[in-house]
Structure prediction request, 256 residues.
Amino acid sequence: MNQYGTQVRQTALALLRDGVRNADVARRLDVPLGTISYWKHVDRAKRGECPGAHQSACPRCDRDLNEEAYAYLLGLYLGDGHIIQNRAMRTPSLSVACTESWPGLMDACEEAMRSVFPGNSVCRVRRKGCREVKLYSKHLWCLFPQHGPGKKHDRRIALEPWQREIVDAHPWDFIRGLIHSDGCRITNWATRLVGGERKRYEYPRYFFTNLSEDIIRLFTDTLDRVHVDWKANGRNISVARRASVALLDAHVGPKH
Prediction:
């Protein structure tokens, strides 16, 4: 977004503050609508006007946390999520990257965010080839203590005792979040001799890949709790046994 320069951004913000619609600003300045939306959110957050910025109640400490939604959102965060706060933003933001080809995943992610943070607004920011489902909250540090400097696979990732209790109570929601972020369901094929004739047969398989050994261990430990057989090949986890695939189909299913 820096390619547009400070003058273009300042002009856009002046128009937005005057009440001009995002789409009209985007057309007038020939800037993508997603970029305009992002500039507007950053500007409102900087001035303390972002929706949800004045919500003081913590979803975990002051409310009844929706644990099922949180277990799913935690899985998404550990996979494709990140938290950002810089000097220009009074309130940190949580973003989960979702590819454009899976609108159902974006809907599920947004629903989980709204369930965990019922007093906050959720938006979608367009990026190249994907969209970030995003919200601002001052309580992100409380909900996601795994946040820290650098990439997740370069630092230790471990669940707090209260998070472990939630994951143990809702293992399938956690697994679904991890697979929806860094996993997939594919159809493999192989050949075998049947009556002297080589025939091809197909079978479904789930994969999960992550650079963090800690996150992989969280995934496989949770699979063990729900009696799903898995195999590891480096940082790739495969589930191919028919009964285990059937369990994942019943509780997770392919991304859409």
